[in-house]
Amino acid sequence: MKPGTSIIAISSPPGIAARGLLRISGAHATEVVVPHLSNFNPQKRQSETGRLTIMNLDVPVITFNMPGPKSFTTEDVVELQLPGSHLLLERVMGLLIDSATRRGIPLREAGPGEFTYRAWFHGRLPLDQAEAIAAVIAAQSDEELLAARHAAEGSLHARLEPLASDITRTLGFVEAGIDFSDEEDVVIASVADLTQQLEIAADQLTQAGDAAGGAESADVLPRVVLRGPANAGKSTLFNALLGRPRVVVHDEAGTTRDAIVEPCCLSSDVSVLLVDTPGDESSTFAAANIAELEGDLVLWCSPCDAWQDAPTGALCIGTKRDMTSERPACDLCTCAHESPDIEALAALVATAVRTASHAPWASRLALSSRQRGLLDRAATSIQAAIDLLAIDPPTGNPTRPSEVAVELRETIHSIGSITGTITPDDVLEVVFASFCVGK
Ligand SMILES: Nc1nc2c(ncn2[C@@H]2O[C@H](COP(=O)(O)OP(=O)(O)OP(=O)(O)O)[C@@H](O)[C@H]2O)c(=O)[nH]1
Ligand SMILES: [Mg+2]
Q: Is there a smaller number of Cβ atoms within 10 Å at the N or the C end of the chain?
């Protein structure tokens, strides 16, 4: 997949839309489109409105010309916005490839992720952020999107880069011990220091792993269970918190027959799994698959004018406050049809979740299974290095430094394979540069 030829792809998702996007990247991007556009200046970075002729049709087109290196891929990039017909986009792509081929211009259809690959290849973004972009595209829910965006903004990179440098420095000490222990000017760190540095690094690796969640991790979200008497307005609040009509609401008691679970974003840093349940006294309540877990937060919903006592530890919500002037002693009285009440409810639940020390999803980093595997390998090898560090009493040096070095190289390699920035060769450079031993 080494960049060389220019690439072209339909960059808008399939489906009906007002506009569709064709993107071209590479040294020949402007040459590809010039003969086909009525109004296009390849020298200028700008957008222009013009026309393109295809199948005897005169089609309007907006062109964005982004000469490299100030583009996403760092190559010359041209984007064409066309009417949003997938067939039309395919035909225009075919026309441009045929015309380029006839003129001897190397242009082909891009492979999956190839624009992002080129951005990474040219050093425009690190590997973990490239993967995070894939996670953004694949996100199935608001929560996954939030986590993926978080990773795309570089949180994983920000955590792992300094860690890799620290381990590289420690490796430097170990390797200096191996290679130059006969040199008087080389000061070798004590084994206790090395062990301490590695233990700190191992802890940080564990923290990075703990903070990581992936698409498969939705079940680690804290659960917030709406409970209360039938007809209390639980399902109405459930829908209102989700911001869409997910479950049926009815004035007849016993409408909800089973537990319904949905991820719900309550604030920029707190997401939960919201669970709607049948009315507490309903015969289906016991049968419903609620399976309360320790740590679930119960949102007890009971009407303001017929308050029923809540189970211990529950957040108490008086519902249908618009129907009565009665105000029971509860945490919040709501009218499900008033948005300020719903915002107050979301804020109340978010605070309760935070103080219950549930890990907030939004601060988690979306990890691909590849990244998670590498992180696990890094944790295993750094632990092995710590275990191998044992003092040889006469010299005070590690007894098996070469084996420690192998494990540390493995750790750095695993981390580097996540961030895409450190290779084993770089390690040598860092080692030699940081010791200035003049060899
Ligand atoms: N006026 C008013 N009506 C509400 C409010 N919340 C819910 N309702 C109405 O109360 C009725 C019952 O609401 P649901 O949300 O279905 O109640 P539920 O607790 O889920 O009921 P079950 O599923 O049967 O246990 C519906 O007719 C709702 O429109 C509110 O804040 N104000
Ligand atoms: Mg209901």
A: C
Q: Which CATH number is 351's domain given?
A: 3.40.50.300
Residue 182 makes CB contacts below 8 A (sequence gap 6+) with none
Ligand closest in space to the Cα of 236: 1
CATH code where residue 10 lies? 3.30.1360.120
Query: Tokens 């951005």 sit at which residue?
Result: 119
Of the candidates 116, 120, 159, 121, the one whose C-alpha atom is nearest the C-alpha of residue 135 is: 116
248 CB near ligand 1 (under 6 Å):
no
Residue reference for tokens 């200046």: 41
Q: How far apart are CA 132 and CA 153, in angstroms?
A: 8
Tell which one of 227, 246, 255, 301 to mutate to probe ligand 1, the residue whose CB is within 8 A of the most ligand atoms: 255
> Which ligand approaches the C-alpha of residue 229 most closely?
1
In a domain, 149, yes or no: no
One digit per residue, pLDDT tens: the chain, 439 residues? 445 689 998 887 666 677 888 999 999 999 999 999 988 888 888 888 889 988 888 889 988 898 888 888 889 999 998 888 888 888 999 999 999 999 999 998 887 677 877 777 777 766 666 666 655 555 545 555 555 555 555 566 777 878 888 888 888 877 776 554 555 555 556 778 888 889 999 988 887 777 655 434 444 567 888 999 999 999 999 999 988 887 888 888 777 777 788 878 787 667 778 889 888 766 555 554 444 544 578 899 999 999 998 888 889 999 999 999 999 999 999 999 999 999 999 999 988 887 764 444 434 455 666 677 788 889 999 999 988 887 666 666 666 778 888 888 889 888 877 776 655 454 444 444 433 333 2
Q: By residue range, what is the domain housing residue 204?
A: 155-212+366-435
- Domain end marker among 355, 375, 390: 355
Are residues 203 and 269 part of one domain? Answer: no
Cβ contact 300:313 at 8 Å = no
Ligand nearest to the CA of 335: 1
Distance from the alpha carbon of residue 155 to the mean position of ligand 1, in angstroms: 42
- Measure 275 CA to ligand 2 centroid, in angstroms: 11
CA of 320 to the centre of ligand 1 (A): 8
Residue 238 in domain: yes
317 lines ligand 1 (CB under 6 A): no
Look at the block and give the residue holding tokens 């703990």. Answer: 210
Q: 277 and 333 share a domain?
A: yes
Same domain? For 201 and 267 the reply is: no
Nearest to 404 by CA among 160, 177, 162: 177
For residues 350 and 376, membership in a common domain is answered with no
If you measure from the C-alpha of residue 312 to the centroid of ligand 2, how many angstroms do you get, rounded to a whole number?
A: 22
- List the residue whose alpha carbon is closest to atom 21 of ligand 1: 231
Tell me which amino acid residue 215 is. Answer: A
Q: Which residue bears the tokens 């290679």?
A: 179
